Amino acid sequence: MEKIKVLIVDDSAFMRKLITDFLSEDPRITVIATARNGEDGIKKIKELKPDVVTLDVEMPVLNGIAALKRIMEENPVPVIMLSSTTLEGADNTLHAMQIGAIDFIAKPSGSISLDLYKVKKELVDKVVSASSVKVKTILNLPHKGQSTIIPQRNYSKIEPRDEKKQNQKSFATEKWNSNKQKLILIGTSTGGPRALQHVITKLPRDINAAILIVQHMPPNFTKSLASRLDSLSEITVKEAVHGEFIHRGVAYIAPGGFHLKAKSIGRNIAVHLDQTVPINGHRPSVDVMFQSASTINNYEKIAVIMTGMGSDGKNGLVELASQGEIKAIAESKETSIVFGMPKAAIATNYINNIENVENIAETIMKYV
Which of 147, 302, 342, 354 has the most CB atoms around its CB within 10 Å? Predict the structure, then answer.
């Protein structure tokens, strides 16, 4: 089996050495070169044709964002960003993922992280996963002229819009039980910010359900993600707050580092956040969210599992199905950046629809 060829782009010699050592310890990976800035990286990508590139966000001469734009235009290749965990770093990283980056690693303590060993396994796993991503999938990211990014709205989320109803399709003949309230549960990981943008921005403001979301991300990044999606969407998108009651037309994203659980309080559902042990390395965990929702009575659940490594969500989906009426949607292999989580969900035989990402919002609305 051929080794995965990796190019490391970072302005710090120390970080280049550390990342090289970590990756080289894995027998599946070979580091073919390093580069000290974006210009140097672009040149070496053309010359050496690596399978995966790790790209620092903050660099002199040509920073990671500018370099990534040129890489996607000139020599598309799977790219993993290395970012600081500051709010600015989180915003830049999300921007990079819209441009075409596959995933990111949050440096534990800034540009030069002496404790990078804390994310060593994550780094190796994500490089290996990225190596299997097809360039065609990268090129379908919404950064081209035929962009599927919804531009920022210029209207209020409170004021009504006449054209709204014209954009909604009627699925009255396919409703499964119009008498019960609905709860939408979405889980995703690698490639998730792009997938969520496809889905959340297409949901109408008056959707008759609340949405709970688990996206595998560290703190700060989920706050930036919520803010970005909120600016692009008709519905309200926010980072979930412990104890708040959920409302229709609002999407609640689990904060990085916290499990998100749904808890019945009287006839209402409240957000419960906690820092109990990670499940299979994840906190937040899709399984935890799904399992908590399975205990909520008088609601039918619409479960959605999209792109991501591993199998998070699979066990929770089984629990949901065993406890009540659900409809489940999985993202297709064709549009998933990484097909791990949807594939595991499909294997449970509880998935009702396998959809390309651009069709998932429409399918959600069918069941709502």
Answer: 342
pLDDT at 141: 54
pLDDT greater at residue 219 or residue 285: 285
- Which residues are known to be catalytic? 189, 216, 312
93 alpha-carbon distance from chain centroid:
12
Q: Which residues contact 81 (CB under 8 A, 6 or more apart)?
A: 54, 55, 56, 57, 64, 68, 93, 96, 97, 101, 103, 104, 105
β-partners of residue 211 are 184, 251
Strand partners, 326: 301
Tokens (6 digits) for 18? 């550390």
Picking from 74, 76, 97, 93, the residue whose alpha carbon sits closest to that of residue 84 is 93
Residue 246 pairs with which residues in a beta bridge?
none
Closest by Cα among 317, 92, 368, 334 to 195 = 334
Structure tokens that stand for 217 in this block: 């991300």
CA–CA distance, 239 with 252 (Å, rounded to integer):
6
Could you check whether the bond before residue 60 is cis, i.e. omega within 30 degrees of 0? no
Q: What is the arithmetic mean of pLDDT over 8-17?
A: 93
Which residue's structure tokens are 């075409």? 100
Q: Which residue has the tokens 């409809």?
A: 327
Residue 177 has pLDDT above 70, yes or no: no
Q: What does the pLDDT look like over 34-67, one tens digit per residue?
A: 999 999 999 999 999 999 999 998 888 888 999 9
* 3-state percent helix, strand, coil for the chain, nearest multiple of 5: 35, 25, 40
Cα–Cα distance measured from residue 241 to residue 271, given in angstroms and rounded to the nearest whole number:
7
Return the closest-CA partner of residue 301 out of 207, 186, 203, 182. 182
User: CA end-to-end span of the chain, whole Å?
Assistant: 47
Helices (H) and strands (E) in the chain, counts: 12, 14
The confidence band for 165, taking pLDDT boundaries of 50, 70 and 90, is: very low
What kind and span of H or E run contains 103?
A: strand 103-106
Confidence of residue 115 (pLDDT cuts 50, 70, 90): confident
Q: Is the confidence at residue 22, as pLDDT, over 80?
A: yes
Rg (Cα) of the chain, in Å, rounded? 21
